[in-house]
TrEMBL record:
Residues 24-169 form the CheW-like domain. GO terms for biological process: chemotaxis; signal transduction. Pfam families: CheW. SMART domains: CheW (SM00260). This is CheW-like domain-containing protein. It comes from Coleofasciculus chthonoplastes PCC 7420. InterPro entries: CheW-like_dom_sf (IPR036061), CheW-lke_dom (IPR002545).
Amino acid sequence: MATLVTQFQPNDTDLAQSRQVIPSLKFIVFSMGNLHLALRIESVYKVVDHTPIYSSGLNHVGVAHLGDREVTVVDLYWRFFKQSPIQESSTGGYLIVVRNTTGDLYGIPVTDTPMLMEIPLSAIRLLPESYRRADTLEVASHVAVIPQDKESITVFLLDVDLLMPIFQEIGILTHNV
């Protein structure tokens, strides 16, 4: 069997164009209601298939067993939309496990498969402070507009440091009960 070897010349413009580096960041992107949300890959500990979540159901917080650890699970869907998802299924879905700066793990349940997406820096924009103060998405610091075949999709980029007050507030609620 013959092996075909091709050599590219350093001045080959096609090669230079195909190797153009576009600065980008990697995100785990997921849907929640009618929103597309994302977390920086560096803040995601792991994504696991649906795991049972144990909770009284009173404050939309639960706990899940992840190996030999317990993970506090926060229902962000309820936090954003003030209602539970229409389809509350005990099977299916995923748990996105996020690690905060102190090493604590928090889970965010999602129904659809999260995707790994590389988003160009040129597509990322800062959200206005006035919007962040007025909307339940105060945990999003930036937004990305990503062109698709027919129309662009808007992805809100969640900031783990902004999520922490929600997790802490919930922790305070659960400790005072």
